[in-house]
């Protein structure tokens, strides 16, 4: 996104320092999924939303999911990275407490 300061856009993850970096094994996609993935990646590269990287830490696989309109949607499998991030020390508020506080 041109014209926006990277300090505003950059996000750092709170990864546990004891966690070991993990690279997921490459999973092969079917021919239809491979074509849809290539098309989606091309769109993201052309819009400068993503770029090629040259470091393999915390790489994730792409998961292709069909939308209700029968088109493929690309998602990432962040299960290993999520396991390496510490959980929040505070739980989400209970719906009953929210309703009580609102009234």
Comma- or semicolon-separated keywords:
two-stranded antiparallel sheet; 103 residues; alpha+beta; extended; 4 helices
Describe this protein's structure.
By secondary structure, the protein is an alpha+beta fold. It has a domain at 28-86. The protein has four helices and two strands, in the order ααββαα. The chain has helices at 6-9, 31-46, 79-84, 95-102; strands spanning 62-66, 72-76. A two-stranded antiparallel ribbon has the order 1-2. The model has no long low-confidence stretch (mean pLDDT 81).
Can you tell me the overall shape?
extended
User: Quaternary state, please?
Assistant: single chain
Overall SS class: alpha+beta
How are helices and strands ordered from N to C? HHEEHH
Mean pLDDT across residues? 81
Tally of individual helices: 4
Count the E strands. Answer: 2
Low-confidence stretches: none
Beta-strand percent range? 5-15%
Cα Rg: 19 Å
Strand order of the largest sheet: 1-2
| First-last Cα distance | 42 Å
* Helix percent band: 25-40%
Major beta-sheet overview? 2 strands, antiparallel
């Amino acid at each position: 996104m041109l014209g926006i300061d990277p300090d505003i856009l950059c996000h750092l993850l709170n990864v546990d320092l004891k966690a070991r970096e993990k690279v997921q094994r490459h999973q092969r996609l079917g021919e239809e999924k491979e074509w849809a993935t290539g098309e989606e990646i091309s769109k993201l590269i052309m819009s400068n939303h993503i770029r090629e990287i040259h470091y393999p830490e915390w790489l994730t696989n792409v998961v292709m999911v069909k939308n209700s309109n029968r088109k493929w949607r690309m998602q990432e499998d962040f299960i290993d990275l999520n396991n390496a991030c510490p959980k929040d020390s505070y739980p989400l508020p209970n719906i009953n407490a929210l309703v009580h506080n609102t009234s």
